[in-house]
Amino acid sequence: METIVYTPRGVCSRKMEFVVDNNIIQSVKIEGGCNGNLNGISRILVGMDVHHVIERFSGVTCGMKPTSCPDQIAQGLKEKFGN
To answer: What CATH homologous superfamily does 2-81 map to?
Structure first.
């Protein structure tokens, strides 16, 4: 089991922490951002393969921003696990 800490860029969230075992997300904690949405997203991610999350969340935007919290989740996982 390994913990990945990522500092997102261009979004309201300040810190993302993932616990991953054998490419499967065990838990997600996100500081800052839209609490209800990010708690819901965090719960959905538990049990998912990191590569599936990267594929699904990459490129999601928020309003006029070129990124979003889901996109930043994908970027944080990409840094560790690649595409």
So the answer is: CO dehydrogenase flavoprotein, C-terminal domain (3.30.390.50)
